[in-house]
Amino acid sequence: MDPEIVQSRLLDAAEVLFNEHGVQAVGMDAIRSGSGVSLKRLYQLYPSKDRLVEAVLQRRDQVVRDELGAFLAAYDEPAERVLGVFDYLDAWFRRDDFRGCTFINTFGELGGVNEEVADIARTHKAAFLACLRDVVANAGRPAELADQLAILANGAMATAAITGSPAPAHQARDAARVLLDAAR
C-alpha cells in the first residue's frame, strides 16, 4: 500500500478516536483497528504514541488554518471579516464531530507532561491570534482588540464543547461586535 495512503489512514483514524475519546483513552491497537494498518507498520511510521499525537496535531493545525482562511475570504467588509471568525466557530460547533478544540483538549491531557504537544498547541493558538491580529488591523482597529477576541473565541470553544451547544459562538460574536464598535 502507498506510504502516503497508510499515513493518511493512520492519522485519520487517530484523529477521530482522539477526538471522540481523548488521547489517553485510545491505545495503539484501537488505532490499528480503526485504520486497518498493521501494528508493525504503525510503529514503523510512529515509533511512539507521542509521535502519532504530534503528527495528528500538526496536520490538524494546517487544516484549521486553511479552513479559517478560506472561510474569512468570503467576507468583503473588514469589520465583518472580524466577526466572520465567530461565524466560522458557529459552523464548526454545528458539526457532528465537534468535541471541542483539539489543541485545548490535548493540551489539557498532555501539555504538562509532553513539551512537544504543548509547543504545538501554543503554536496553533499563536497562529490563531496572528490571524485575528491581521483581520483586526485590516478593520482599522487597535491590536489589543485581537487579544480580547482570542479570549472570547477560545472561551466559546471550551463552552460549546462542555454544553454541547453552538450558542457560545453567537454569544461571543455579539460580545465581539460590542468590542469592535467600541474600538473605533
UniProtKB/TrEMBL annotation:
<dbReference type="InterPro" id="IPR009057">
    <property type="entry name" value="Homeodomain-like_sf"/>
</dbReference>
<keyword id="KW-0238">DNA-binding</keyword>
<dbReference type="InterPro" id="IPR001647">
    <property type="entry name" value="HTH_TetR"/>
</dbReference>
<feature type="domain" description="HTH tetR-type">
    <location>
        <begin position="4"/>
        <end position="64"/>
    </location>
</feature>
<dbReference type="Pfam" id="PF00440">
    <property type="entry name" value="TetR_N"/>
</dbReference>
<keyword id="KW-0805">Transcription regulation</keyword>
<feature type="DNA-binding region" description="H-T-H motif">
    <location>
        <begin position="27"/>
        <end position="46"/>
    </location>
</feature>
<dbReference type="InterPro" id="IPR011075">
    <property type="entry name" value="TetR_C"/>
</dbReference>
<dbReference type="InterPro" id="IPR036271">
    <property type="entry name" value="Tet_transcr_reg_TetR-rel_C_sf"/>
</dbReference>
<keyword id="KW-0804">Transcription</keyword>
<protein>
    <submittedName>
        <fullName>TetR/AcrR family transcriptional regulator</fullName>
    </submittedName>
</protein>
<dbReference type="Pfam" id="PF16925">
    <property type="entry name" value="TetR_C_13"/>
</dbReference>
